[in-house]
Design goal:
Belongs to the cytochrome P450 family. By secondary structure, the chain is mainly alpha-helical. Helix content is 50%, strand content 6%. It has eleven helices and four strands; from the N terminus they run βαβααααααααββαα. It is globular, with a radius of gyration of 18 Å. The protein binds protoporphyrin IX containing FE (HEM).
Length: 270
């Protein structure tokens, strides 16, 4: 079933009967499958509640305003070459010495579930980095969730650059041109897969006036790009801060903007 209406999308996302599609639980240690079986994003019920609590506690230690300043500074330092900046800034704030290419290598498979020798090797390498205990998975989860979605938001916002304030630009980009297009659930009772079409729901004419028009002055609007209900993105403030910091810097160095192109290989889920 594909959900395109905003009201129905909200109802599914708020209903505990619908859970993320289950992931395998029998993968060998330090492989992609092993990692996916241990994170909040793909778990449900009590395991999800407990893992999500740990994520929220960790996120509460990170100040979005500081992330924004650091993302701005890092982008300026790199003369506008912003790719990798959000992940680098987040990793530094968490104290995780994870190189951006390694996070990127794992992030693709983390979301899609596609297990390859390459992604398994990258997961093993991530877990060889210094650090120990349950917080390692919490910190790596944050980096893996953050990477593609935040870069996708920035890249998409840059295609609409044109004088609007950063806040309005990011908010309307999230609604009109979200970095992730769908999210999935499974009905626990029947096993039926439910695909929530975020692009369609964010342009539902019952909720958004003139929905096809990109309007950075639209103001607060109930887009679903950060999810909703049982498991919305716990880091929307952090994501917005990282993206805003990069845009702050690019506005200070506008010549960099001309080299931007839209994201063409956006990931489906976040
Ligand atoms: C523009 C950037 C981002 C977008 C659009 C986004 C969106 C989302 C969405 C829609 C979900 C829920 C998925 C679902 O319900 O199926 C989610 C989950 C999550 N996001 Fe984000 N996210 C972004 C950035 C970030 C960042 C920067 C972080 C970390 C600092 C982060 C951490 C997480 C985590 C840990 C979860 C899993 C929550 C759970 O399992 O309950 N996200 N995100």
């Amino acid at each position: 079933m594909i959900i395109t209406r905003h009201v129905e999308a909200r109802a599914v996302l708020a209903d505990t009967r619908y859970v993320p599609p289950p992931v395998r639980q029998d993968a060998p240690p330090y492989t992609l499958g092993w990692l996916r079986a241990r994170v909040s994003r793909f778990s449900s019920g009590e395991a999800h509640a407990e893992r999500r609590r740990a994520l929220e506690e960790r996120l509460a230690e990170l100040d979005p305003a500081t992330l924004r300043r650091r993302a701005r500074a890092a982008t300026l330092e790199r003369d506008g070459d912003w790719r990798g900046v959000p992940t680098q800034v987040l990793a530094a704030a968490l104290g995780v010495p994870a190189p951006v290419p390694l996070v990127e290598a794992v992030a693709a498979g983390y979301l899609s579930g596609e297990e390859t020798p390459g992604t398994d090797a990258a997961v093993a390498e991530l877990f060889r980095l210094p650090g120990d205990g349950p917080s390692v998975i919490t910190d790596l989860t944050l980096l893996l969730q953050a990477h593609a979605a935040t870069e996708g938001l920035i890249a998409n916002a840059l295609t609409h650059e044109g004088g609007a304030g950063v806040k309005g630009l990011l908010r309307e980009t999230l609604r009109h041109d979200p970095p992730l297009k769908v999210t999935r659930r499974v009905d626990r009772a029947t096993g039926e897969e439910v695909v929530i079409d975020l692009v369609a729901a964010n342009r539902d004419p019952a909720v958004f006036a003139d929905p096809e028009r990109f309007d950075a002055s639209r103001g607060e609007c109930p887009h679903l790009t950060f999810g909703h209900g049982v498991r919305p993105c716990p880091a929307s403030a952090h994501a917005l801060a990282l993206a805003a910091g990069v845009l702050d810097a690019l506005r200070a160095a506008p010549r960099q903007l001309t080299s931007e192109r839209p994201v063409s290989d956006q990931r489906e889920d976040s």
